[in-house]
Design a protein that fits this description.
The chain has 284 residues and is α/β, with parallel strands linked by helices. The protein has a single domain, classed as ATPase, nucleotide binding domain (Nucleotidyltransferase, domain 5, 2-Layer Sandwich). 39% of the residues lie in helices and 15% in strands. The chain contains 10 helices and 10 strands. It has helices at residues 44-52, 61-72, 132-135, 137-149, 154-159, 169-177, 181-205, 221-234, 237-240, 254-267; strands at residues 17-21, 24-26, 31-33, 56-60, 81-86, 90-96, 99-100, 209-213, 244-248, 281-283. It has a 6-stranded mixed β-sheet with strand order 7-6-5-8-9-10, sandwiched between helices. Strand 2 (24-26) and strand 3 form a beta hairpin. Helix 2 (61-72) packs across helix 10 and helix 6 crosses helix 7 (181-205). It starts with 16 loop residues before the first strand and ends with a strand.
Length: 284
């Protein structure tokens, strides 16, 4: 409403509404749903269509980001790639032969729910040991908070004026880049967990490239190089050879761009690419 109503007569130019939802999607029922027992199914698509009188297109938010990258960035348009999103959860969106891999229940890519041996932490999904509990934004922050109470990460704590409320993934990344020992050790552990999940994807899918996305990308080369080094050791040699890892600088607006791209792809499926778009992507 904040965007749409002030448009006045220009509203006639709006073709549709795209939504990237941070949840699983039931395309038959046009609802979002979750494996969490306390999270109700939401008929979000029909509700918004009724309110605005416009067609609404819905997908997982990471899929919309991947769709934007594939549509708007020339070098990704004709390649198999994996978008590896490290945010509230650890999730992948996979493009093979120009098509998004969805799976039987449209839930492909849930790499964050692969269990890590020896991990006893309970995930929000209800199970124990998921990568999300160790390497997602919330998982990392939980580990840092526990460490602060145990008198660890003191240089990081000083950076944020000894105020736990100021603790963020960005401040953690800055501490890693500053060479603070505790933060660097935790970062290396996080890379182990991420590589553990990513190895399976590389072995099974054999992508040309992996695009990293999320606030943790603020460490830049350090993350890409650390994952490449681990994949060289852990992944099937043929699949790891010449694999590219591209780090996308964190841009919270790209989800909105992806949602708009979702409308375009549904209404004009014959249009495959859009020219003259620029994103902050850096090749490593």
């Amino acid at each position: 409403n904040d965007l749409y109503l002030p448009m006045g007569h220009s509203r006639k130019r709006v073709l549709g509404i795209g939504i990237g939802a941070p949840s699983l999607i039931d395309f038959k029922q046009s609802t979002t749903y979750s494996d969490l027992s306390q999270a109700p199914d939401l008929p979000i698509q029909r509700s918004i269509e009724r309110n605005f009188g416009l067609p609404v297109y819905l997908d997982h938010n990471v899929n919309t980001i991947a769709l934007a990258l594939r549509t708007l960035v020339d070098e990704h348009q004709n390649e198999d790639f994996v978008l590896f999103s490290i945010r509230k959860g650890v999730h992948t969106s996979i493009f093979i032969n120009g098509q998004l891999l969805r799976g039987r229940n449209n839930s492909a890519g849930e790499i964050g729910h692969i269990p890590v041996p020896g991990n006893k932490r309970q995930c929000v999904c209800g199970r124990y040991g998921c990568i999300d509990t160790l390497a997602s934004n919330e998982g990392i922050l939980n580990i840092l908070r526990e460490g602060l109470r145990g008198n660890r990460y003191q240089k990081l704590f000083n950076m944020i004026d000894r105020d736990e409320n100021k603790l963020t993934i960005t401040s953690f990344a800055e501490s890693v880049l500053a060479g603070h020992k505790d933060s660097r050790l935790l970062f290396e552990e996080i890379c182990d967990y991420l590589a553990y999940g990513l190895t399976g994807v590389v072995n099974i899918i054999n992508p040309t490239k992996v695009i990293l996305y999320g606030e943790l990308m603020r460490v830049g080369d350090l993350l890409a190089d650390s994952l490449l080094e681990r994949l060289d050791r852990m992944a099937f040699q043929t699949n790891a050879r010449n694999l590219q890892i591209i780090c996308s600088e964190y841009d919270p607006e790209i989800g909105a761009v992806g949602a708009a791209t979702l409308v375009m792809h549904n209404m004009f499926p014959y249009i495959k690419t859009i020219e003259s778009a620029e994103f902050n992507l850096r090749r490593y």
